[in-house]
Amino acid sequence: MLLHTKKQDKIPQELLMLRLCTLLILLLLAVIPDRAGAQDALVNSEVTTTNWEPESTPPKREFRGVWIATVFNTDYPKSPSPMRVAIKEQYKNLIAEFKRLGFNAVVVQVRPAGDAFYPSQLVPWSKFLTGKQGQPPIPSEFDPLEFMVEETHRMGMEFHAWMNPYRATVNLDTAGLHPTHVFNQHRDWLLTYGTRMYLNPGVPEVRKHIAEVVGEVVDNYDVDGIHFDDYFYPYKIKDVPFPDSATYYFYGQAFKNIDDWRRTNTDNLIMGISQRIRASKPHVKFGISPFGVWSNRSQNTMGSETSASVTSYDDLYADGIKWLKNGWIDYIAPQLYWNIGFAAADYAELVNWWSMRVKDQHLYIGQAAYKVGDNPEPKWQDPTEIPRQIAMNRNNIEVDGSIFYSAQSIKRNLLGLKDSLRTAFKAPALVPQIDYQTGRVPKIPRFKKVRSKDGDVKLKWRPHKDDTYIKPAYYIVYRFNGSRVGDYEDPRNILHVTSFLADAKKMVFMDRSAEAGKQYTYVVSAVNRQHQEGRPTESQPILKTERRVKKIKNRRVKKQKDKRSKKEKKEDEATPDFRF
């Protein structure tokens, strides 16, 4: 019989039930697919144009970046100008627009072609900034990069400095090259290929020079990341070999073939720059956005089920998988510039392939905003292609966000792309924290007051007393409907993310969206530079009226009296506490 009335029979019955539960759990585990299989199912699940809709709960943490290209003035500035006002206003307008769209990071090209968007001791001013290579802005003491970083942080966004390591010129016209340009300083470091000049990757002094250029930016600016794209060895020109055979003969005798030597040159560059960044500022991330296909499986057993005519490993000599395994980079953002179902390089296949190769680092997906409504492939005439790609990314546990190319393509709003992104990014998102990049977690802020001012709700708080020396990087203001705290992991409860602040001693925020007659509960938390969130403050529930704010006292739940006898308590305490 399973029904018992005596107290002493209760324990064996519970143990029996626990054994049955254990057996059931083991049976369930036996039929659950492994992680790889589960990811295959998630990534390859059908997401059609007709059934796509935004997911109910967006992620609280998601990298939402946009590439801002300066070469040929693609995105910024609209036209070169040495004047400070023009440089500043254009950038402020650009960054504000992407903040409104829900982005939380920008990747700005500050070294387009052996030049700089900042005062440098190593390379000349860029002609894409001021109109003439080597010409400083007016006034000369103005530092555009310092301004861009500060303005980006003021908007509560990360700034990643995008640098092209090897590209020295964008054409073969050398008349306009400044005396400090590498062409005039170290012409023996350069190789001409096609219509451009490149720093020779096989020369050790070149790698040292590039590391110094990167180090100058890391040392002198408060950047959040250093970013390289897919340009390492140049894309091949048909029937035109890259002219580095003499360099190979001089430096590559230990290698069996020139391909392995070239890959090693790129490896050494990445390793050296990684070491240089971490020696200076360990919190600065090093990220790379390689060509989207590492290698085809027909060429390499580790490759993807693709048939791309160009691959990163075989043609550009960039082995992103090795850089991940060796921990040289902190994130990788493969450029998956193809649509879902594209025969030669299926977006779904490549998201799945890359997601299986990240471990401790972050995986962001490079998205082809520039193809939307402007590509002959029929799928790029479908306004839901990018939203479906975002949904696919979010369904993959290893994908931490996206970077879109490029800013101008989004601003054009072809097929309503900008509107689609505004919908996808409606809820704010925090930049994901990289697990091994940690710092001192801020303590609970001192939530001072919730008051009414001019019909709005005014919040005031200060950092914790112990955080006065190393202050939080920024704060999160949560607002829950009603008089109780809700789900902290639902970003729709985030009302505001503050600017990245260096030395703020007190904070004030005005909630102008609170409606009269409704109850709200406010909570504040502090976040450090590594995006680690501290514990939240005690909640502040209020009732908003037309002219004032009324505080609501939290009702305490009355503790129920334990009616068990002493004997029953002892028997229950003796019962094993099984936890799964």
From TrEMBL:
Key word Signal present: yes
Lineage, highest ranks first: Bacteria, Pseudomonadati, Bacteroidota, Saprospiria, Saprospirales
The keyword Signal is assigned to this record: yes
Composition bias type Basic residues, residue spans: 547-567
Domain Glycosyl hydrolase-like residues, every copy: 62-381
Source organism: Flavilitoribacter nigricans (strain ATCC 23147 / DSM 23189 / NBRC 102662 / NCIMB 1420 / SS-2) (Lewinella nigricans)
Ranges annotated as biased composition (Basic and acidic residues): 568-580
Superkingdom field: Bacteria
Name of protein: Glycosyl hydrolase-like 10 domain-containing protein
Keyword annotations: Signal
Chain spans, region Disordered: 530-580
InterPro entries reported for this sequence: Divisome_Glycosyl_Hydrolase, FN3_sf, GH, GHL10, Ig-like_fold
Pfam families tied to this protein: GHL10
